[in-house]
Write a structure and sequence with these properties.
The complex is a heterodimer of chains A (about 450) and B (about 300). With about 450 residues, chain A is mainly beta. Chain A is about 15% helix and about 50% strand. Chain B has 2 domains: about 150 residues, Rossmann fold; about 110 residues, Nitrogenase molybdenum iron protein domain (Rossmann fold). Classes of the chains: A mainly beta (about 450), B alpha/beta (about 300).
Chain lengths: ~450, ~300
């Protein structure tokens, strides 16, 4: 009883205050002479207006509680069944060693939880937007994938972001795992970025005031993760620059292309490799790493309507240049010598939605061993002529925009002279706040 | 090499040159583009983000939308979560504080009209339901009239120098619109009480306006593609509760409605749904002329 009467009171307040507001408005406009003068609004219009006000009043909560400012919460649930013809414990990309802390490769055999994420996002105030993306890993560990704030009140196309976030370099780098078109990230991203570059730092983006999309961006970061080495120093440990352009061709075609570069100076970045004698050794690299990325995406949807059928073609090329010094076998001889390497990799993939809810995709990719010079350590470390490669095909079923079930088959030749046939069955679902359709 | 760079520079200039003159209005759907054009005349430059052939629920934040939002002085959208899948990103990444929600440069049409089908229970198991009610408000011309009034005021607020121009154009539009509404209502009078089947629950405002009676929908749940099992159910239901026609929007896939139309011996009416959805729906007047005409044609 009490509840009903207080509700009624609240409604009455809302209606009367809203009504007062319109009356004031009407007064103001009448005074300005833009409305019909002298005529008192007749009863029917008044009734209509009250009806409308009641509708708007009841649509909004009359009294806001602290609870009503809850941010958008979304939970990504993902699970995987994997069948591998090779032992994943031996997984490596021959010629492209990464630190042991970097998680690459196809993961575990059998059933496993895939990366499940909790995201909490909201406008902070009229000036900032912010959020957290917390990733829960199959081994019961969890990590902060993204936690950033971003400006919304700047003008002239400028947006500044700070915190931990996925870098704007390349195309797939800024995408969360659940929007990838395949179960795993491209080999080139695994080899050169340890799957994805997410650093602690700042980003500034500028959008040009043009009909076509043209965006320039720069980031300064800590160099927290591979290819950086989380150095303990003032100033920044990594920096990026990127430019993206894009637009439409007719109503059915959309494109985006970009160029990006990353520079970082790792210190004692340790990684394990196999020496010429076939023994596992740990080496450490100190020097400069420079990565260049070129990306291009083209999407087609008949008359712009992607609901039933659409097609996407996407490619990226990554090129890494490292020079400095390399300490061979840090636990043993610790022989330091100059190191100079130029390596590259690319992938090309396409995804075709042939009917509503169903998509098929294919990806082909290769890494180029390039030119590696260990100087005096050429006597200890192998320089292979092997180019790792991989081919994948997938089919996915998307019962709604919140759920996806995917079957993927891949033939992985990352390891020299070894072919790994990988079958993955995966689900990815999201609940909570409505996900956005990023390009 | 030098000439190559010259050509490249020229191309870049041609492709990326800003065209600044009138008030830049970014509209999310064609109906608001058409309305803003009626009210703004040559003082506004209109960009329409989506077309009648696109499913408005399934739009991506593509690069061209970002570029246009960055320069906009005013964003005119439906709201009521219709654009929830793409507009928030576009606004956030636009680097344009004029068009952020809460600013005068952000205009939501659905907040001005009384919404129908406001769900009492919010659960994604019910399909694509919108918490604020059905967002397809543009199928009732009375809603357009209400939005027009508010939009004219908003244009005047943002572009004070042309305030009287917008008010004058509004008065002119409102008079023509009132006359047109009377005409449509008179023409459509025989449609009152007509039983209809809809593909997507996209027409509650049209039904409310013309007194149509929706007896079934081809989508088992909003946003879910018609299944053969559900279509068979609808066919059975139509034997008990006959209808006169099946309505679908121009962007809907036609197979489900045609399958049912053939078996239930019902005409399928493809409504433009918004401006640009048919050859005759070139503007808002054409949209309703054509909508009413197509309904009448199907009934006779």
């Amino acid at each position: 009883m009490l509840r009903i009467s207080s509700l009624a009171m609240a409604l009455w307040f809302a209606v009367s205050s809203a009504f007062a507001a319109t009356v004031n408005n009407t007064d103001a406009t009448t005074a300005a002479g833009t409305n019909d003068r002298n005529d008192q609004p007749d009863l029917r219009t008044l009734e209509k207006r009250v009806e409308r006000l009641e509708a708007t009043a009841s649509a909004k909560p009359a009294a806001a509680s602290s609870n009503s400012f809850n941010p958008d919460i979304s939970l990504i649930l993902s699970g995987l069944y994997t069948n591998l013809s090779q032992n994943p414990a031996n997984y490596r990309i021959s010629g492209f060693p990464v630190p042991s802390s970097v998680d690459i490769g196809p993961g575990q055999r059998g059933f496993s939880l895939a990366e499940s994420e909790l995201g909490i996002y909201a406008n902070i105030d009229p000036y900032f937007y912010g959020g957290l993306n917390y990733a829960m890993h199959p081994d019961d560990s969890a990590s902060v994938e993204e936690a950033f704030i971003q400006t919304t009140a700047l003008s002239n196309g400028v947006t500044i972001k700070a915190g931990r976030f996925f870098s704007g370099i390349g195309y797939v780098n800024a995408q969360h795992a659940h929007v990838w078109d395949f179960v795993d990230a491209p080999l080139a991203y695994q080899a050169f970025l340890g799957t994805q570059l997410g650093d602690d730092g700042m980003q500034i983006r500028w959008l040009a005031p043009t009909d076509n999309f043209l965006e320039l961006g720069a980031e300064l970061g800590r160099g927290r993760a591979f290819p950086g080495s989380n150095r303990d120093k003032n100033g920044s440990g990594a920096g990026t620059l990127f430019v993206h352009a894009g637009g439409d061709i007719g109503i059915s075609h959309t494109w985006r292309a970009g160029l990006s570069t990353l520079r970082t100076s790792p210190q004692d970045r340790e990684f394990s490799d196999i020496n010429l004698a076939g023994v596992d050794v740990t080496n450490a690299f100190s020097g400069d790493t420079r990565l260049w990325l070129a990306d291009a995406v083209w999407k087609y949807a008949p008359k712009g309507n992607a609901t039933y059928t659409n097609f996407k073609l996407q490619a990226e090329y990554l090129r890494r240049q490292e020079n400095g010094s390399l300490v061979y076998d840090t636990a043993g001889t610790a022989n330091s010598a100059a190191y100079d390497a130029k390596q590259s990799g690319w992938y090309l993939q396409s995804v075709y939605q042939f009917m509503r809810y169903w998509r098929v995709g294919a990806r082909t990719e290769q890494l180029d061993h390039g030119r590696v010079d260990y100087a005096a350590n050429n006597a200890n470390l192998p320089r292979t002529n092997f180019n790792p490669s991989k081919n994948s095909v997938m089919v996915d079923y998307n019962p709604s925009e919140f759920s996806r079930i995917r079957l993927q088959f891949a033939q992985d030749k990352s390891r020299q002279a070894i072919t790994d046939n990988q079958v993955s069955l995966q689900y990815q679902m999201s609940l909570g706040a409505h996900g956005a359709h990023q390009f | 090499m030098k000439t190559f760079f010259k050509i490249l520079t020229l191309l870049a200039i041609a492709g990326f040159t800003p065209q600044a003159t009138a008030l830049d209005v970014f509209t999310c759907e064609p109906e608001w583009g058409s309305l803003a054009q009626e009210l703004g005349g040559d003082r506004v430059s209109i960009y329409v983000a989506t077309s009648a052939m696109q499913d408005p629920h399934q739009i991506q934040a593509k690069p061209s939308l970002l570029a246009r939002a960055r320069r906009a002085d005013l964003v005119v959208c439906t709201g009521a979560e219709l654009e929830i899948g793409w507009l928030p990103i576009v606004l956030r990444q636009s680097g344009n504080n004029k068009i952020q929600p809460g600013k005068p440069g952000y205009f939501e049409a659905a907040s001005l009209v009384q919404k129908l089908e406001v769900p009492t229970r919010l659960d994604r198991a019910e399909g694509d339901v919108h918490a604020g009610g059905n967002p397809h408000i543009q199928t009732d011309p009375h809603n357009i009239a209400q939005v027009a009034n508010a939009l004219a005021q908003r244009l005047a607020q943002i572009d004070g120098a042309n305030a009287s121009f917008y008010q004058a154009r509004y008065r002119d539009f409102a008079a023509r619109w009132d006359a047109a509404m009377q005409r449509w209502e008179k023409q459509a009078a025989p449609l009152r009480g007509t039983a209809i089947v809809v593909q997507h629950k996209g027409f509650p405002y049209l039904e409310h306006w013309l007194g149509l009676r929706e007896v079934a929908s081809l989508e088992p749940k909003p946003g879910v593609e018609p299944t053969s099992a559900h279509l068979t159910e609808v066919l059975e239901q139509l034997k008990r509760e006959p209808a006169k026609m099946i309505l679908r929007a121009a962007y809907n896939d036609g197979r489900g409605s045609e399958w049912l139309g053939e078996r239930a011996k019902l005409p399928v009416v493809v409504l433009p749904f918004t401006v640009g959805g048919s050859d005759k729906a070139k503007d808002l007047f054409g949209l309703f002329d054509d909508t009413v005409q197509r309904l009448l044609d199907a009934r006779s």
